[in-house]
Amino acid sequence: MTVTNPYTPFLSKITEVIKHTEIEYTFRMAYQGDVLPGQFFEVSLPKFGEAPISVSGIGDGTVDLTIRKVGKVTNEIFENYVGDSLFLRGPYGNGFDIDNYKGKEILLVAGGTGLSPVKGIVDYFSAHPEDCQGFTLLVGFKSPKDVLFKKDFEKWEKNINVIMTVDTPEDGYCGKCGLVTQYIPEIPINHSDHAVGIVVGPPMMMKCTLTELFNVGFKEENIWISQERKMCCGIGKCGHCKIDDTYICLDGPVFNYTKGKFLKD
Amino acid sequence: MGYQTTLAKMNALFADLSKDYVIYAPKRFVGDGTFVNIDTIRYGEITDLAEIEFAEKSDYSFKEVLLPISETLFYFTENEMKEADAPKKGAIVFLRSCDLYGLKRLDTIYLENGAVDTYYKRLRDHTKFILMGCENSFENCFCVSMGTQKSNDYDAYIKVEGHTVLVDSHWDVLDTALTGEAQTIVIADSVTANETVVTIPETVPQTLFESPFWEDYGNRCIACGRCNFVCPTCTCFTMQDIFYTDNGKAGERRRVWASCHVDGYTDMAGGHAFRNDKGQRMRFKVLHKINDYKRRFGSHMCIGCGRCDDVCPEYISFANCINELNTLTKEEI
């Protein structure tokens, strides 16, 4: 039996680079194949290693990978990407199933780069608002200069309810300030016991957001979360992402909260 | 088929097999242990059955034959990658019954959990396993508690008694080579009891995750990872890229053993990490071995070899930990 080597990366051309901040760029990569929001690729740079990066957009023959310059591999990608290609493996993980959310009231709460893995959901429902009963994107960034996907916000705001807030405002900023949690009670949800919540962000932000969602009547079974862990192999072997009997790379990173709440490191 | 033959005949047979196989067995490395005048028993290549340490338990397990400590996956030059070649020869591995169960755990992770691992499979497909019996239980073994003291899932069982060798063969190559030798019934030695007995709790309630019980281990464990590295069922690794100093455009990607007890195991980009406390790491490992692996795959991961207890420089006993956890679980329920 010939076994396809699951560690073999393929070369993917960078078709566009979208700069959001000094340290966060979206790399639009050539890719033909099925992929879901919330799945991830192992981005590979020979001599420097691999890094798991969430899919932040799905196009015709492309996938977007939003990368923060924060480590050995990503530093090198930012330094040497110009006009070049990257090696990819994937997509891995289960991703978000849009069908779970169709026909529902949807509240998506994201913190910082947590918006990347769920951006595909926002893209879909802002393009197909008729497929849900209402869609609110509530997203928080540290400061105005940390805001990602600025051009997409202009497009989204035409069709869905968008609340964007920053922790620390700067001179000249006239948008919303404060934590995402303080805006949850103000969001017009008609039937919170049937509404869908999607929460992705830093661990403390997710914990506080979930508490607030339950306070306003959301049900555990209607909430989806995405977990972030070190994922070295992406295929259930290396063990780094394992929690309890769950491999985040195989069984996640997207979980219904009824399962996700039992994942304790 | 069981045979009685001579040591000379078996050595000649293995010499012949060594054309196609590298033969690995536990060997005594005199004075190579941690302290002065301490030997170590670990796996190495043998050319004579007399080199095998039958009388004592090996400090290290067989797993490094199938899962090398450092294994090159690719060689690369700028934009080209070449998969590392497979070993030219297969392998024959001498091991004990509990280790044969450890082999099943490796198979489960590397062949069944997610995609088939190419590198493991290409070694595994060309490896034969020869059982070494246990006449007596060794210190810290608790195989009987884990149900791993007896296995028939071997390619051959070999027992050396002076110049006589008893063989039980499940391998046609050996049957052919031993045609004409005296046939006899050979039953593998196995123990029926260990001095160490463990009782594994049926399920460990999540409320015990936060128990102060783990703090004792946090205070004692020094995160050296030895318990992971000697364990035949620990399968974790991490990937490393290196490039050659005399040619910066060429290099290789390797996987090397990693360990849930060692600092840095859960580090993510940006500096966030999970289970910084060593007690939490102990909890993670213990529950992996005797709780959550079973929930996912149907059997306990631990095979009761006791090597983790043998090797811990802080005298942390995994077996005692399980028994105390069982007591705490009963109190909790």
Automatic annotation (TrEMBL), chain A:
<dbReference type="GO" id="GO:0046872">
    <property type="term" value="F:metal ion binding"/>
</dbReference>
<dbReference type="Pfam" id="PF00175">
    <property type="entry name" value="NAD_binding_1"/>
</dbReference>
<dbReference type="InterPro" id="IPR017927">
    <property type="entry name" value="FAD-bd_FR_type"/>
</dbReference>
<feature type="binding site">
    <location>
        <position position="233"/>
    </location>
    <ligand>
        <name>[2Fe-2S] cluster</name>
    </ligand>
</feature>
<protein>
    <submittedName>
        <fullName>Anaerobic sulfite reductase, subunit B</fullName>
        <ecNumber>1.8.99.1</ecNumber>
    </submittedName>
</protein>
<feature type="binding site">
    <location>
        <position position="238"/>
    </location>
    <ligand>
        <name>[2Fe-2S] cluster</name>
    </ligand>
</feature>
<keyword id="KW-0411">Iron-sulfur</keyword>
<feature type="binding site">
    <location>
        <position position="249"/>
    </location>
    <ligand>
        <name>[2Fe-2S] cluster</name>
    </ligand>
</feature>
<dbReference type="InterPro" id="IPR001433">
    <property type="entry name" value="OxRdtase_FAD/NAD-bd"/>
</dbReference>
<dbReference type="InterPro" id="IPR014260">
    <property type="entry name" value="Sulphite_reductase_B"/>
</dbReference>
<dbReference type="InterPro" id="IPR039261">
    <property type="entry name" value="FNR_nucleotide-bd"/>
</dbReference>
<keyword id="KW-0560">Oxidoreductase</keyword>
<dbReference type="InterPro" id="IPR012165">
    <property type="entry name" value="Cyt_c3_hydrogenase_gsu"/>
</dbReference>
<dbReference type="InterPro" id="IPR050353">
    <property type="entry name" value="PyrK_electron_transfer"/>
</dbReference>
<feature type="domain" description="FAD-binding FR-type">
    <location>
        <begin position="7"/>
        <end position="98"/>
    </location>
</feature>
<dbReference type="GO" id="GO:0051537">
    <property type="term" value="F:2 iron, 2 sulfur cluster binding"/>
</dbReference>
<keyword id="KW-0001">2Fe-2S</keyword>
<dbReference type="GO" id="GO:0006221">
    <property type="term" value="P:pyrimidine nucleotide biosynthetic process"/>
</dbReference>
<keyword id="KW-0408">Iron</keyword>
<dbReference type="InterPro" id="IPR017938">
    <property type="entry name" value="Riboflavin_synthase-like_b-brl"/>
</dbReference>
<feature type="binding site">
    <location>
        <position position="241"/>
    </location>
    <ligand>
        <name>[2Fe-2S] cluster</name>
    </ligand>
</feature>
<dbReference type="Pfam" id="PF10418">
    <property type="entry name" value="DHODB_Fe-S_bind"/>
</dbReference>
TrEMBL record, chain B:
<protein>
    <submittedName>
        <fullName>Anaerobic sulfite reductase, subunit A</fullName>
        <ecNumber>1.8.99.1</ecNumber>
    </submittedName>
</protein>
<keyword id="KW-0408">Iron</keyword>
<dbReference type="InterPro" id="IPR017896">
    <property type="entry name" value="4Fe4S_Fe-S-bd"/>
</dbReference>
<dbReference type="GO" id="GO:0016491">
    <property type="term" value="F:oxidoreductase activity"/>
</dbReference>
<dbReference type="Pfam" id="PF17179">
    <property type="entry name" value="Fer4_22"/>
</dbReference>
<keyword id="KW-0411">Iron-sulfur</keyword>
<feature type="domain" description="4Fe-4S ferredoxin-type">
    <location>
        <begin position="293"/>
        <end position="321"/>
    </location>
</feature>
<keyword id="KW-0560">Oxidoreductase</keyword>
<dbReference type="GO" id="GO:0051536">
    <property type="term" value="F:iron-sulfur cluster binding"/>
</dbReference>
<feature type="domain" description="4Fe-4S ferredoxin-type">
    <location>
        <begin position="210"/>
        <end position="242"/>
    </location>
</feature>
<dbReference type="GO" id="GO:0046872">
    <property type="term" value="F:metal ion binding"/>
</dbReference>
<dbReference type="InterPro" id="IPR017900">
    <property type="entry name" value="4Fe4S_Fe_S_CS"/>
</dbReference>
<keyword id="KW-0479">Metal-binding</keyword>
<dbReference type="InterPro" id="IPR009051">
    <property type="entry name" value="Helical_ferredxn"/>
</dbReference>
<dbReference type="InterPro" id="IPR014259">
    <property type="entry name" value="Sulphite_reductase_A"/>
</dbReference>
